[in-house]
Design brief:
There is one protein chain. The protein is mostly helical. It has one domain. The chain is 81% helix and 0% strand. The longest helix has 38 residues. The radius of gyration is 18 Å and the shape is elongated. It comes from Streptomyces wuyuanensis. Keywords: Membrane, Transmembrane, Transmembrane helix. This is Integral membrane protein.
């Protein structure tokens, strides 16, 4: 289990680096402390979101079933998380957004197979739960990102005035 946590944290930091480092390059006046703090905070958030993906999919599957599924909950395993680390590395702009998306679809398909086996849902229903959970978590994180950027921009304008 600790290997899974380490891989999720590494995937989260890599994902955050793909978003923060291009911004730091475009704004050379950013302090290294701010970049490092943003990288750590973003990495923890991204890692947490990745960690929640199977649980959110399982919860959606439970809503579709009349009786709770008999199996154990869907959890990350090292072989499922490893492609996410690669996907996070590929998140860097211009290094492969399409490959990044393909890896996430592949990981989602593996999660859907495990969810279908664990719950008794059909594969397509399980894939829908995995996709809805991933999309919902992604939209939530993007909304928080935009809010943080908006608040940061407002604070920066107020400090200049």
């Amino acid at each position: 289990m600790s290997l899974v946590v380490v891989l999720l944290l590494f995937a989260g930091v890599s994902e955050a680096a793909g978003r923060i480092l291009p911004l730091a390059v475009r704004r050379p006046g950013m302090s290294r402390t701010l970049v490092a703090g943003s990288l750590v905070a973003g990495g923890l958030v991204e890692g947490a979101v990745l960690a929640l993906w199977p649980s959110a999919a399982w919860t959606l599957a439970e809503l579709l079933l009349s009786a709770p599924p008999p199996g154990a909950r869907l959890v990350w395993t090292p072989d499922l998380v490893a492609p996410l680390v690669l996907a996070a590395v590929l998140a860097f702009p211009l290094l492969g957004p399409f490959l990044h998306l393909l890896l996430f679809v592949g990981v989602g398909a593996q999660l859907a197979s495990q969810l279908a086996m664990g719950t008794g849902l059909g594969w397509w229903s399980a894939a829908g739960c995995v996709a809805a959970a991933g999309t919902g978590l992604g939209v939530a994180v993007e909304a928080v990102r935009r809010l943080v950027v908006r608040i940061s921009a407002t604070e920066a304008r107020e400090s200049i005035a």
